[in-house]
Amino acid sequence: MTLDLAVQGVQMMLVLLVAPLLTGFVRKMKARLQRRQGPPLIQPYRDLARLMHKDAVLAENASWLFRVIPYLIFAATWVAASLVPTFRTGLLFSWSADLIAIIALLGSARFFLALAGLDVGTSFGGIGSSREVMIASLAEPAMIMIVFTLALIAGSTQLSTMAEYMASSAVGLRVSLALGLVALIMVAIAENGRIPVDNPATHLELTMVHEAMVLEYSGRHLALIELSSSLKLVVYVSIIACLFAPWGIAPANDGLLSLAIGIPAYVAKLAGGGFLLAVFETSIAKMRVFRVPEFLGAALMLGLLATLLRFVSGSF
Amino acid sequence: MTLTIVLVCAAALLALAPVAVMLARSPAATRIVYAASLIVSAISLAAALTHLLGSAAPVGITLPVGLPWLGAHLRIDALSAFFLVVVDLGAFSASLFALGYGEHETAPERVLPFYPAFLAGMTLVVLADDAFTFLLSWEFMSLTSWALVMSHHRVPENVRAGYIYLLMASFGTLALLLAFGLLAGSEGLYTFAQMRAAHPSAALDALVLILALIGAGSKAGLVPLHVWLPLAHPAAPSHVSALMSGVMTKVAVYGFVRIVFDLAGSPAWWWSVVVLALAGATTVMGVLYALMQHDLKRLLAYHTVENIGIIFIGLGLALAFATHGLTFAAALAFTAALLHVFNHSLFKSLLFFGAGAVLTATGERDMEHLGGLIHRMPKTAFVFLIGCAAISALPPLNGFVSEWLTFQAILLSPQLPSWALKLLAPAVGALLALSAALAAACFVKAYGVTFLGRPRTPAAATAMETDGFSLAAMLLLAGLCLLVGILPGLFINALAPVSAMLVGGRMPAQTGAEWLALVPIAESRSSYDGLLVFLFMVLSGTLAALAIHRLASDRLRRAPAWDCGYPDASPATQYTATSFAQPIRRVFGTVVFRASEHGEMPPPGDARPARLVVQIHDPIWDTLYAPIASAIGIAADRLNRLQFLTIRQFLTLVFCTLVILLLVLAIWS
User: Which of B313, B563, B570, B591 to mutate to test binding with chain A, by most A CBs within 10 Å of its CB?
Assistant: First the structure.
């Protein structure tokens, strides 16, 4: 019990600490791939610390909701991140939210972020919010379809159980899994606002989505939102890692020794995911906004196809 | 005992109607009528709750009213008790809200007499135990609500709404009448007990299902029978809109469940295919229609259509599982549907109350004329936000729990043997997920445009916070939304007798697990704990706030909005409801609504401003209703000639008819 509690605590702190590092790592890798030196790995931590110590500047007509939303978003994302198995399955509280609930928690964060974009009443905030909900309206059902596929294979929507099943030899190679993986990667790219759906590095561009919504934020509020979006990236990489690369993840009842494998394995998976993301982002151009529905529609269809295959026969 | 109390309450409400007629002109009438309704519905609610949580054993009574020698049969069982709780809770909160809201009513004499009568009508529908009482109460409910829709009868829009409502209601009742006629069979079995015992043929049963879908579905708002709903619900005063959307549609669901699950003999497996296909279409069409609206109350009404679809998805799955003998899965799906019935009645009433508060504060229903109300009406804004989050199925609120349970039920559907269902179930799951995401988008729009941003009109800029009674009613419902969200187990346990009665099984008791977690099947399979998620969110949010304020900075400055350096002072530069929905309109609307937009550019020299015109076609109205309406129009024109015949021609007509009838009689025997 104490061990479980400690592991849960370690997980909560680990995801929080590693999140800016992953963002910094992706940026560094992208810079290197573009033959730039790039900022140091710890730059995101410095940015966060500086933002937190600055005054928060609020627009004159910003409401109380605008000030509460960064904390709400952070809380929802952090709770989601704490419940995804990263280096060990069977976390103390992982049963309190299954994968559908984790997706819905991230959905809550997005709901409030989109509201924040509308709060000050500027045209940039509105454009970001309206595009964000358009993207979400396709990404969320696609994600639910992927969850269906995986849940039907593993016989559970509980991420811990799913990860354990995926790590066992019972799973084998399946068509539906491959479709699910492709769809999941597409959804993860869209959900995290990465190229080709959105560009996390732009400002002042009419194609931006996430950055337009948070335009009015500053200081500690902006820091929390930046941290939340780093955490969200960690959540998605962790979900993909624990379902499609469950190697090295420590089983629920093992002692400390397996943790010694689990944590380095997790960090290595994050680094691998970050590297692949950087390569992908460097090699592709950003899409026009109205190409995004086609991109996500494809993810939705792949997810639906994978689910249908599972419904039709258990062997796919 | 329970039944007596509830019936006395219904009688008291009926008696209140003439009292309201007599009082209507006096200034205290509003207070008296709503306070009386409040007390009566509280008593009735307490009685229904005790029955549902207590024995839930059916109790019947035959009153010597109604048809001579037959009397009126009334009965309360677990199903009626549950729906009575929904009705009475809605009535209670609406009466509380109306204590404040009703003071602003311009024509109270048109609302007050019908309000308690409407409540009594809904109560009697769920208690009826014979076809006659059921249909009588059903029509009574329809007519009183029609009168309430027409309370502002000088608005041309309301007149049209009332007309279409009356037509659709009559059509629905006709279908129900025929359904009961088939159930009654040639012997004329008239009480529900006799219908339950009879075993009509499969073909007749199928016809009963179709008629019940038309009859109850048109009242509930199933696509394509929903057309009256978004017209009529917003036209009524807001507390009545809340009752119609939150409660009366549930009474319609009750009618469907009573007929299909209880009275009809043995359902065939393909029934669920019909129900699921209609429900899936309803869910997505409802939310897409809602996204295209900028009238706040009409948007909410379209969301009722969507939520009715979600409820019917649960019912369809329950039928599918039940007909294949998968009792446990049927209980899960059925419980999900019932929980959504309860949840929707909570948040839809809350949202309509919020819309009513906005309407009294600003005189506006059109979101394009609102904005920035969070500054002027902070309390209303807070509770409305809870309602928006709940209906968007966000954890840890209640809407998520019922949708989560529906998803869990869909995940059990590979066990179904029939191929049609195997293919339909995941498709319905995708539609449900799509509608959940679109609903969240729609409520970002509704809340963002109405309450956030800058006021778009002087009316919005000078709005005042609503009164204490209205706030109390909204707070009560918001609190219940949170309570069901974090302690769903308690409510699911209360539904167990209903599912045991109708699908022959129940979900396992939900209060055993640690931290009151919700475990529908087994913990290794799926579990959700709203309480813990809520606590975690509160804790981590507070922790972050404390840590940052202590360790880093808690200073705050106000400055003009940044907006990339080009803020525009005019509130017209904000996103409106129409522009917010533009991306979604472009993605979904071009297919579904043939939505198009084109710029109207005046010729050079003309001083008119250029306009962007958005055109949307209602596919269901255009393809289904418009042809019927024009066909009736043409037929009426043709038949009109019959009015102007000479007396000889009339006599010839009568004579020919007589001859034909006699011939028919002669050949028949």
Answer: B563
Task: Say which of A55, A122, A140 has its CB closest to residue B555.
Answer: A55
Residues B286 and B181 in one domain: no
**A250 - beta bridge partners?**
A88
Nearest residue to B245 (alpha-carbon basis) of B319, B317, B172, B296: B296
Mutation test of the interface with chain B: which of A311, A312, A316, choosing the one with the most B Cβ atoms within 10 A?
A: A311
CA distances (Å), origin B591, targets A171, B281, B430, B585, B616: 40, 14, 18, 9, 11
Which B residues 517-546 touch A at CB under 8 Å? 517, 523-529, 532-533, 536-538, 540-541, 544-545
Q: What is the mean pLDDT of each run of 10 residues along chain A (316 residues)?
A: 85 94 95 93 95 93 95 96 89 88 96 95 92 94 95 91 87 88 96 88 70 91 95 96 89 78 92 96 89 94 93 77
Same domain, yes or no, for B454 and B335? yes
For residue A315, give how far its alpha carbon lies from the nearest alpha carbon of chain B (Å).
Answer: 13
Task: Say which residue the tokens 């939900």 belong to.
Answer: B510
User: Could B426 and A130 be called an inter-chain contact, meaning their C-beta atoms sit closer than 8 Å?
Assistant: no
Q: Are residues B297 and B437 in the same domain?
A: yes
Sign of torsion over alpha carbons A132, A135, A137, A140: negative
Q: Establish if B547 touches chain A: CB-CB under 8 angstroms.
A: no
* Domain end position, chosen among B137, B165, B195: B195
Please give the residue range of the domain that contains residue B116: 1-195
B543 lies in a domain?
A: no
Model-level ipTM above the cut of 0.90: yes
The tokens of B444 are what?
A: 């970002």
On whether the CB atoms of residues A140 and B436 are closer than 8 A, the answer is yes
Q: Tally the domains of chain B.
A: 3
B18 and B151 housed in the same domain: yes
Whether the pLDDT of residue B651 is over 70: the answer is yes
Domain boundary pick from B195, B218, B249 = B195
Whether B535 maps to a domain, the answer reads no
The residues pairing with B599 across neighbouring beta strands, listed in sequence order, are: B612
Please indicate, yes or no, whether residues B143 and B271 belong to a single structural domain of this protein. Answer: no
Beta bridge partners, B63, equal B72
CA distance B237 to chain A (A): 28
* Cα–Cα distance for residue pair A162/B100, rounded to 1 Å: 52
Question: How confident is the model over B547-565, as pLDDT tens digits?
Answer: 999 999 899 999 999 888 8
Q: Look at residue B55 in the predicted model and tell me its pLDDT.
A: 74
Does residue B260 belong to any structural domain of this protein? no
Q: Is residue B609 part of a domain?
A: no
**Alpha-carbon distance A236 to nearest alpha carbon in chain B (angstroms):** 19
Same domain, B176 and B37: yes
Picking from B392, B438, B523, the nearest residue to A95 by CB comes out as: B523
- The token duo for A209 is 């989505």
Q: Are residues B187 and B313 in the same domain?
A: no
Contact A148 B426 (CB under 8 A): yes
Of B372, B422, B533, the CB nearest to A97: B533
Give the tens place of pLDDT for each residue, A122-165. 988 999 999 999 999 999 999 999 999 999 999 899 998 899 89
**How close A41 comes to chain B (CA, Å)?**
22
